[in-house]
Structures are given as C-alpha cells and as structure tokens.
C-alpha cells in the first residue's frame, strides 16, 4: 500500500510539472506571436501592461499566469497591439514585509493593477498592499477580503473587490424577512466595524427599499457586544422581555459559539424562536437546529475570482482605449514620492462601472468598489432522523435574475426545519398581555386632575395616570377620565389585556425633526420623533389611547387602528359682541335725526304759542254763568302739548284754541305718528340684524390667506394640524404667518380666544365643537377641511392591531361610540346653543339700560327740582313774613297819623267854637294843653281827655304830682316818634 501511494504521488508531481512546462511554453508562444504579428492601433497608451498579483499559494500564482496567457488570445477583451504580462509575489502575514515586496517586485516592474488575496487565517494583510499601491493610485482588486474597512475610500482609495463585504448580507436578511412575513426583529452584532456596518446597512436598506410599511422590518432592540466575550447571559435577559422572537446575528465563529451556548441554556433556541445568522456564525459547531444562515457562492474558489478580476481589468482598459483615454506609464520607484498617477485614478473609475458575466456570476460594483449582485445559498441547520449529527442543508438561493435585472430570493419552505425541530413556522413575536398605555390631556377626550395630598386613590370613574417629566426626572400622580379613558376600559375588557396608564412625558402628541446619523457606510438623514409618537417609535410604550390624528407621516412609523371617531379641522372664534351700549335704544335713528326731532318739538311749540297768541280767536268767553273768559295758550303749555303729542301721552290741558294752531297741531300729530312708527320698526330691525355672525367664512377666507390683514390665527406646535399645513403648498403663505403664533397646548389657545387675544384657533373639529357646545359665545367657522380620524396608536407590527381594530368596529356597530359622544362631547349643551340661535332676538338689559338710566335721571332730576322748589318756597315765605310785618307797622303808623290829624282838626273846631262862646282869645292848643295838664290851668279840673285812656293817666298823674312833675305830654308841634315801627 505504501509503494502504491508513493507511485501515485510521483505521478501527480510529474503531471503537474508537465502541465507547468506546457503552460510556460504556451505563454512564450503567445508573446512571440503577439510581438511578431500584431499591429498596434493608434492612441497614447503602452503596448503592454504588467499586471501584478499578490497571492496566497503556488496554485493561485500558476492559475494567475495561465489566465493572463489565455487573455492575450481573447480579442473580445484585448485590442490589437496590447499585451498583458503577469508578475506575482506571495503575500506575507507580516504587513511590512508585504509592503516592501510590493515595492521591490511589483511597482518596480511598472504594474498597472494588482490582484490581491490572502489566506482565511490572515488578519488584514491585504491592507498593506492597498496602502502601498493606493499611494500611487494603482488600482487593487481584492478577491478574498470582505472586511467593511475596505469600503472606506478615504483610506483604501483604489481598492476594488470581487467578493461582497460581510455587511452586504443585510440585504439578504431583509429579503428573507419579507419572504417569511416577519416585521419586528432583534439585531445582535459585535461592536467592531463590521458589526456596526451590518446594522446600518439593514436599517438604511429597510427604509429606502421597502416602501410598503406592512412588510418593512423594524428593529425592536439592538444588542451590541464586545468581541471575545465570555458570557452572553446578561444580554439574553433583555431578549426575553422583548416582543420579537426573530434574532439576526452577526458574530465571529468564536463569539457565536458562546452566544448559542448561553441561548440554549435560557431556552431561546426552542420552538417559537427564529435565528437568522451570517456565514461566520453558521460555522460554529454548536449551531442550534433550525437556524437559517447564508453562504456566499464561490467564496473559497480563489481561481475563479482571479479570472473574474483579470477580465474585469482587461474590460476597463479596453474601454479606456476605445474612448481614446491617455494611459501613461505606471509609477516605477517607491523611493521617489513623485506625483499621483492620474491614469490610475481614471482606470479605477472605469473599473467601478464594469458589468460582466464571470465565473462567479454577474460581476458589478457599487460606488465604493464593493461587489454587488453576489449570489448566496440559504442554509438550514437540520438534524437527520436517527442521527445526532447536524448538517447544513441548502433550502434556497439568492441570485441575480437576468430577465428582471435584479436579485431574487427563492426558498423551498417545505424543506425548512425550525427551532425546536418543528416544521411549523413560528409567529415571530410574543404577544404580551400587560401593556403600557400613554395618553395626553385633551378635553373632552381626557380630563386630567392632580391627585391631592390627602387622597389615596382616584375616584371610581378615574384611572391613575402618573406623569414622568423627562426634563427634571420628577414623577407626579394624576387622575384621568373622559372619552378615551372609557374607550380604553372597554377595549381592555373586550380583548382581554391589562395596562398601566401614563401621561405623555413632554406633553405633546409628537412631531419629527430631520437629523443626520452616521453609520458604518456613511451619513444618512433620519426622522426623530418626540411626544407620544416618539415613545411608541422607541418602544417605550405599547399603546396610545388619545385623540391621535391619523396622517401619513405618523403612519410611516407606527400602526393605527381603524378610526374610533371621524373628524376634520375647523376654526374656532369668538362670536362678535353685540353693540349694546347705554344708548342702544337710540340706534334706530341717527344722531342728526334725533337732533332734528328735538328741534322740531320746540319749534312747533313756539309756533303754536305765537299762533294762539296773536289769533283773534285765541281767547273766548266760557259758557259759564260767572262771565269769565279763558286765556290764550301760553309757551309752557305749548311745549307740553308738543311733547305730549310726540310721546303719545294724553293731553289734559293746554290745547290750542285758534283754528290755525289746531291745524298745525294735527299736522304735528301726523308727524309724531310717522316718527314713532318708524322708530318702532327700525328698533325691531336692529334686533334682527344684531344677531352675531361669524367673522370668517372658512379656511378659504381671504383674510386668513392675506398676511397683510390684522387677523391672528394659530394652532398647536407639532400637532397633526401643524403637519397638515406644512404639507399643503397652497397654505404655505398662511402657515408662515401663523407659525410664529402657534401654542404649546390647545388649552392656552382656547383661553386666548375667549379672552379676545387670539382671533382664530385652528384645531380638530371634535374639540372645537365641544368648546362651542359648552360656551355659546364661541362658534366654529366654515366647513370642515383636512378630514381624517382619531385612531389608536400601536407599535409597528404589533400583534394587537387587528384585535383593537375589530373591537372598535364592533363598538361602532353596537352604538357604544355614539353613547360616548353624547356623554362626553355634547353634554346636551349643543341643543341649548342651537335653540338660542333659532329664537328671535329679544331686548335685554344691555339694550334698554339707557332707557332705565334716562328714567332714573328723570327721577333724580325731579327730586332735585322739588328740593330746590322747597328751599325756594321757604325763602319766599320768610321774605313774605318780613314784608307783612313791615306792612303791618306801616299801616299802624299811618293809622296813628290819621288819628292825630283827625284829633287836631276836632280840637281846632272846638277851640273856634269856644272862642265864639267866651270871646276869649285863646288858642285851641292852649286850651287843650290846659285840659291835659292841670298844673297849667289849676282852675280847670274838667274831666275831659283828648282820647280814651287820658282820664286814667291824668288820675295817676294827680296822685304823683307831689313826687314827679313830668313835662307836658303834648306840646305844640310835638308828636310821638314811631319810626322804629317801620321795617
């Protein structure tokens, strides 16, 4: 047996030696034939091209030379006058030695391109070749390097490869998830460059290439680990609590062994779990049964990749020659820094545009020089019956479809074995029964009340809804009730789940911002959400039960149930206040007309007075027996008559007496009738016209569209209404104006509308109709626009979506949603407001306050006048009393004087009489004096007295003659002074 083996090995060596000699002879003949027979075409390019090879073994070097020799006979790729020569070296594990060999043996031979490969056990040995040749812009074609680092053109400026990088397997992952219908996954990757690159590729491709949100895969959780890990148990705890049961694994073979070991110990490789792994993880010797993995076609066929690389290079050079591109000689000396080889840069750009059908399939490259359209096999780890060994079974392929011009995935589902050694496809998710529900304060859907310090729990119709402030980290307890809370209770009872309710951390519904994110393959723009939507997107919540408007932006990132309430957008404004002032009763007539009426009253009164005064028939004798006659109409009575006729009051006295005045009175009565009738009619018309109307006609009102109008309108920042205005191009001008006025909450905006600080608030019709029903001073303007609905928000791919939708449809059919509308939205107030609008307008205190004030002013004026009259009357009485006293004193004095005159006259007559009798020539005065004063005439003791009372006085005087002798009472020309009696 030993001799036979020796003979067999010797025969193989002789055969290899003979084949080598024949290939070298063929190569020499090829060179000779081309040098002698070929005719060089025109153009500035060399007649021969040296192609370098940095290869891993002797067989590869031999095959490289043989491919170059065959290439020179292929006129499809080699134009006339062009010859290719090969120059190969062996790659070394020491990158410095490899770089020195490239300079010494390749660049010194003026190679125009280099094909490089390395042993699978080597680390980054091709990097030295890439750095060295890239410095001179010499193209490098890798045939075995699949690390993500070579995709970075800032480092490996001229590196191209015929094998795809490891992170391109994410494209196949997405096709497999789409095939099986899994939309939620957990990504497990190492924290190196390749691990982060495959995650970035998965997320970017999922968002850009899968427009249908129903089949787009989303990442529920990302688990990143350090390479060379010892245990994975701690990370597995996070996987257990997640909803997804689909795991995408990128790890080295050594790390995959630890992950599979710990996963099996925690029962994560049993039935119901799905593992999809990359090539390295598939090579672990403890890969669980049912794992799906990938294997690159021809990944170990180095000779086939060498041929594809050389033919791609020849295709690029031919294309350059065809386009008359100038190809200068390649750099020669590594010791001379020299300038950048521009022809090498252009050659690299031509290489990236190649599309050929090669030994490894359809060969093409992307902008980074990475191989695309690479074919993979889908491998399923199975355990044959009656055997304990595992084997990898090909159950599908990922290949390039020539007809459709794209990659296709084909899997035979009947051949699949899933984890747990079952043939039934797992669901891919674990449906939780305890959900975290978020809501937000929005009356009447959610009423929020702070839990008082002395309260232990909320009331029966309320649910505890704590608010965790994401800014300061504080948590406060609140109680919630309302439309949505009742809906949540009904849903939980109908589809059987428990929940914890909480308020939105930042108090917003949610809007997005565009931010740049750097991944392993570049920079991408990503939408970041806040508010309720953000909590759902990052999977910190399971359900949103709130008046959440369904719109395209949100539906791209979350699931929506069927609408539980249909609504739209409308405008809330305050009704125009009625112009009810203190003089509202004067509104039927203008100020000018009122002035003319006032003037007419007094002019007519004056004319009536004059007519009755100067008319010969203005006064006449009454038919009474006393013979008196009535006076003509005076001015006061004329004014009273004019006002009485105008105000339709009865005239009891002071009517005109002349015919001419009475004709004018009839004309004035007709005038008064017309004025009063016109006033009454106009007052009724003003009550009708005073019915408040809305200021705006709707969203198309020119005052809203025209930014020059002094009309402030606003909505809530980051809301669905805000997104609607941003989407509508025709509303962009209006949105720019209102954007600066937008509010943080609807409560603030509605209060400002009530206070008159905001003229129009644009918001969801359900909330605004509720506010208008509650406060009849508010009104919605115009028709609804932007019609949509409120829906329950769920995570992408949530298992509760269908159940929630069916429950809501059932609530609509049973009338439960209608009962919620009546209970929470309308409250019966809408009928009151409608009745108020339909009833005719009536006069109120505001309208007639001026009349009452006028009556009050009349009363106050009358009281004031009566006080003045009383004071005046008292003053007149006091003055009259003084005049009466003075008059009485004057009358008495006058009477005294008259009596004196009479007495003197009588005495004179007596004296004359006595003279006649006695013939005594004495004066009457002396006689009288003598009688009055007996002292003067002692002989005379007659009892005569000048007037009554003198006798008693004389008697008293006689009794007192001895004591006192008064002067004579009456002396000639003496009179008593009575001037003190005169006032």
State the major sheet.
8 strands, mixed
Strand content: 15-25%
Q: Work out the number of β strands.
A: 33
Mean pLDDT: 80
Low-confidence stretches: 1-42, 920-925, 932-951, 960-966, 968-983
Portion of residues in helices?
40-55%
Query: How many angstroms does the end-to-end distance come to?
Result: 183 Å
Shape: elongated
Please count the helical segments. Answer: 28
Structural class estimated from helices and strands: alpha/beta
> Radius of gyration, Cα only, in angstroms?
61 Å
Give the topology.
Blueprint: H1 2-37, E1 48-55, H2 58-71, E2 83-90, H3 95-106, E3 111-116, H4 125-135, E4 140-142, E5 159-161, H5 169-180, E6 184-190, H6 193-209, E7 218-225, H7 233-241, E8 246-250, H8 253-265, E9 274-277, H9 279-282, E10 292-296, H10 302-322, H11 342-352, E11 355-358, E12 361-365, E13 371-372, E14 376-382, E15 391-401, E16 406-411, E17 434-439, E18 447-450, E19 463-464, E20 467-468, E21 475-476, E22 478-481, H12 483-495, E23 498-503, E24 512-519, E25 522-529, H13 531-537, E26 543-549, H14 552-555, E27 559-560, E28 565-574, H15 591-614, E29 620-621, E30 629-630, H16 635-646, H17 659-689, H18 702-705, E31 713-714, H19 720-727, H20 732-739, H21 746-755, E32 760-764, H22 765-774, E33 778-794, H23 801-814, H24 816-826, H25 829-838, H26 845-918, H27 924-932, H28 950-959
Parallel strand pairs: 1-2, 1-3, 3-4, 4-5, 6-7, 6-8, 8-9, 17-23, 17-26, 31-32
Antiparallel strand pairs: 10-14, 11-12, 12-13, 14-15, 15-16, 18-22, 19-22, 20-21, 24-25, 26-33, 27-33, 28-32, 28-33, 29-30
Helix pairs in contact: 1-2, 2-10, 3-4, 5-6, 10-11, 15-16, 15-17, 22-25, 26-27
